[in-house]
Amino acid sequence: MKTFRLLPLVAVIGATLAFPLRAQSLVDLYESARGFDASYQSAKSQYDATLARAAQAKALVLPTANLALGASRSTEQYIPGTGPQADFSYGTENATVSASQPLYRPANWAGYRQGLKQVDLAQAQLDAADQDLIIRVSQGYFDVLAAQDSLTFVQAQKAAVAEQLASAKRNFEVGTSTITDTREAQARFDLVIAQEIAAENDLRVKKIALDQLVGKSEAQPQALAQPVALPDLLPNDANIWVQQSEGDHPSIKQAQIALEVAQLETSKAEAGHKPTLDLVASYNAINNLDGSSTPGSSDSRVNVGTIGLSFNLPLFAGFYTQNRIKETLALEDKARNDLEGAKRAVAQGTRTAFFGVLSGQSQVKALEAAEASSQSALDANKLGYQVGVRINIDVLNSQSQLFDTKAKLAKARYDVLVGGLKLRQANGTLRAEDLQSVNALLAR
Questions:
Q1: What phi, psi does 389 have (nearest 5°)?
Q2: 325, 337, 382 from 255: Cα distances, Å
Q3: CA–CA dist 296, 165 (Å, integer)
Q4: Which CATH class, in words, describes the domain spanning 65-102+276-313?
Q5: Which positions of the chain have pLDDT values less than 50?
Q6: How far is Cα 188 from Cα 398, in angstroms, rounded to an integer?
Q7: What is the pLDDT of residues 385-406, one digit of tens each?
Q8: Could you tell me which residues come within 8 angstroms of residue 220 by beta carbon, excluding any fewer than 6 positions away?
Q9: Which residues, 6 or more positions from 398, have their beta carbon under 8 angstroms from its beta carbon?
Q10: Is the CB of residue 399 less than 8 Å from the CB of residue 164?
Q11: Quick one: how far is CA 305 from the chain centroid?
């Protein structure tokens, strides 16, 4: 009876193990990579550190307070010319509380504003890291799909060549074809076997790379839904994409912030010629504890409180300030040139990515036409071989051309989808939400 009771449980376990792993969408794997990828986590930690460092600059304009405590004891001996020896022993305890509030310190305020700029810089750097992660996940995702397609097409070609090889052997046995047909089919079959081995290894490597990126074991991307309908590129104007980059691209933002920080650094240098004014206050308590042997001695306590203004006017610093200003002005020009260089690089990269997507879309259309033509050519060669007007090698070549075209077409479609994301990265508008449009093209 116990054996029969275990049978349903065994059946459930067997069904669970036999059930294929659920395929993950591009968004699913991106979310997984966000919490696992070491490069992105490093950028996130750098972002947090930059925020903390920026907050430190606020201390430059806030008051400071200090507490100081001290204690000492002294012993003195007095030996007069005549009379008894006199000993003096006393202790001192003191406590001081001091505070200072900057009232006019131009350099401190410039440093505080630099700290605020660091927050914007940290956000731009994190945005760039996020965009890079989106592209790496998308590229790895479609690399696996392309490798799977290549293996599928090679296996389909192997089956077709095996069928053609069997046909050639039968025809040779009945005397309707020469041994040449058989040897050609055998050579092509051996070649396809080698291609299958290479395709299997390529798929294995691509899967390992994707698993390493997203932190999952045996990640399984969802394939594109059939029939594939690639979205149009909108707006279909490279100038519009370039204009969008001017205010959104992380590299341009970082260069712009670097220029503003350099300008504030010049303000700090110029502050070397300006006076400073601070509000200062202190309270000092001193206890004198007399332990001498002298009659009439006693303890005493003195409390002193002060409040006032501290004014400082620089007069001469060995030409340090003048040369510091020259340095910061040169660095300001460098930052301005870097900003212009970043704008030009982004514009060029955006145009290159834009025309790359257009070219990819044209290649997809051309390969779709080539696929239909290759299929027609294969059908015609098969028919011609059957009636004796075509030889076996013609059929084999047509099969190779068809499956090669199918593989190139699948790869071209993936390249267009990834190229669209790279275009948004190139002009700085790529966001995680952009993956949803690609996700909509996947099979459910």
A1: -100, -5
A2: 21, 9, 63
A3: 127
A4: mainly beta
A5: 1-20
A6: 12
A7: 888 888 888 989 999 999 999 9
A8: 21, 22, 23, 24
A9: 374, 377, 378, 381, 382
A10: yes
A11: 56
pLDDT tens column, 309-344: 999 999 999 999 999 999 999 999 999 999 999 999
* 441 contacts: CB under 8 Å, gap ≥ 6: 224, 225, 228, 229, 230, 231, 417
Is residue 308 within 8 A of residue 283, CB to CB? The reply is no
Question: What is the pLDDT, as a whole number, of residue 181?
Answer: 85
Distance CA 372, CA 380 (A): 12
> Which residues are paired to 101 by β-bridges?
279
3-state secondary structure the chain: CHHHHHHHHHHHHHHHHHCCCCCECHHHHHHHHHCCCHHHHHHHHHHHHHHHHHHHHHHHHCCEEEEEEEEEEEEEEECCCCCCCEEEEEEEEEEEEEEEEEEECHHHHHHHHHHHHHHHHHHHHHHHHHHHHHHHHHHHHHHHHHHHHHHHHHHHHHHHHHHHHHHHHHHHHHCCCCHHHHHHHHHHHHHHHHHHHHHHHHHHHHHHHHHHHHCCCCCCECCECCCCCCCCCCCCCHHHHHHHHHHHCHHHHHHHHHHHHHHHHHHHHHHHHCCEEEEEEEEEEEEEEECCCCCCCCCEEEEEEEEEEEEECCCCCCCHHHHHHHHHHHHHHHHHHHHHHHHHHHHHHHHHHHHHHHHHHHHHHHHHHHHHHHHHHHHHHHHHHHHCCCCHHHHHHHHHHHHHHHHHHHHHHHHHHHHHHHHHHHCCCCCHHHHHHHHCCECC
CATH tag, 22-62+105-143+207-274+316-439: 1.20.1600.10
Those residues whose C-beta lies under 8 Å from the C-beta of residue 345, and which sit 6 or more positions away, are: 251
Confidence (pTM)? 0.85
pLDDT at 84: 57
Each domain of the chain, given as residue ranges in start order, spans: 22-62+105-143+207-274+316-439, 65-102+276-313
Tokens matching residue 66: 């200090």
User: What confidence score (pLDDT) does residue 14 get?
Assistant: 39
Query: Residue 136: its pLDDT value, please?
Result: 97
